[in-house]
Amino acid sequence: MFPHSHTFVQRISFAQSYCAYPLPPALWPRAPSMTFTITTTTETSSTIEQRMLGSGPGLPPALPNYPAQSATTIDGSSAALFGLPFMVAGVFIGLAAFDVIQTRKHAPLWLIAILGAMFFSAGFFLFVHGIRGVIRKAIYTRKAAETPGQPWLFDFHWHPEGISFSAFNAMLGRLTGALVWNAFLVPFFWVGYTQRGAWPFLVIASVFALIGLIAWVRWAQMLGDLLRYGNSFLAYDEFPYFLGGTLRARLRAPRHLAAVNSLSFTLRCVQERYVTSGTGNNRRSQVVCYELYKDVATLDHDRLANFVGAEIPVEFRLPADKLTTSLADTPPTYWQIEAKGEARGADYQAYFLVPVYKKP
């Protein structure tokens, strides 16, 4: 594979010879040369990934593995109704596991209990997520009528003094995802190990378990981030910020700042979309974050030394022609600052929403 796309042009002429003993030029027949153009293009892994996420030439770049604000691709009453059958199935499986409902069992009690818990947990999550969305939408509609033209008062639960980033919650979320992934594979391992001729289940489960190691590695990194730097807080100098103005804020220096070699602040305007790929039974939907705007400021180790135990100032000039924050929408659009520090051992990383709106 080539690192970049290349175009090769090969000209093939029948007026030449590649034999060991070429004929004299005078003996060659006078025939017009024929030229063929052979174009070969190769795609980088980044290009393929962007296309899979619904991006491409002329479109905003997608942000793989970016922490989205949307929990799922389904919201409101639709999510609540979609979750109900899973909750019912989970309750039924649980009752059957403990012989409240008499059924014939083809698996051990612990495995049936795991299946029931997985169905019920998925349904309960969707149901609560949907109900919260309905309530949030009702509050948004009411407050929008009470204070028109000031969406920062009801679009999100903003705190004028600033916003915190919980490294603990981020680590806990990653741990939960890794555990759910492994719990999902347990039934496949059991079938592949105990049932004659079911070895493909064992092979497939093993492959997916190896893929799941990526989540565990990422969890270990986030745990190291938490233990070394702790939680973070970004203080707003103003509330809100308006497009076309200046965004000034202050990051409370994390623990062990002296160990950070460089610290970069990336301001982004992010728009989430629900992207559906595949066809038929292979259709799947996912939340994809797209980068509509980006600006970066970097501090080296020498400049960071001046802020140990203090606050680190951050300043960006906001464009006037970009989208306003709309976190109440599904999917949302928002502005966010990513703080990322490179250090030996555990790196520092934190994300902060910032209230950037269109001036009324």
Give an overview of the whole structure.
This protein has about 350 residues and is of the alpha+beta class. The chain folds into three domains: about 75-145; about 165-220; about 225-355, Immunoglobulin-like (Sandwich), CATH 2.60.40.640. Helices cover about 35% and strands about 20% of the residues. The chain is built from six helices and ten strands, in the order αααβααβββββαββββ. It has helices spanning about 45-50, 75-95, 110-145, 165-195, 200-230, 300-305, and strands at about 160-165, 230-235, 240, 245-250, 260-275, 285-300, 310-315, 335-345, 350-355, 355. Strands 1-2-4-7 form a four-stranded antiparallel β-sheet, with no helix packed on it. Strands 6-5-8-9 form a four-stranded antiparallel β-sheet. A two-stranded parallel ribbon has the order 3-10. A hairpin with a 4-residue loop joins strand 8 and strand 9 (about 350-355). The longest helix has about 40 residues, at about 110-145. The relative contact order is 0.13.
Helix content: 25-40%
Q: At the third CATH level, what is the topology name of the largest domain?
A: Immunoglobulin-like
Structure summary, number of beta strands: 10
Q: Give, in spatial order, the strands making up the sheet with the most strands.
A: 1-2-4-7
Per CATH, the class of the largest domain reads: Mainly Beta
How would you concisely characterize the structure shown here?
By secondary structure, the chain is of the alpha+beta class. The protein is 36% helix and 22% strand.
Could you list some keywords that capture this structure?
22% strand, 10 strands, 3 domains, 4-stranded antiparallel sheet, single chain, Immunoglobulin-like, 360 residues, alpha+beta
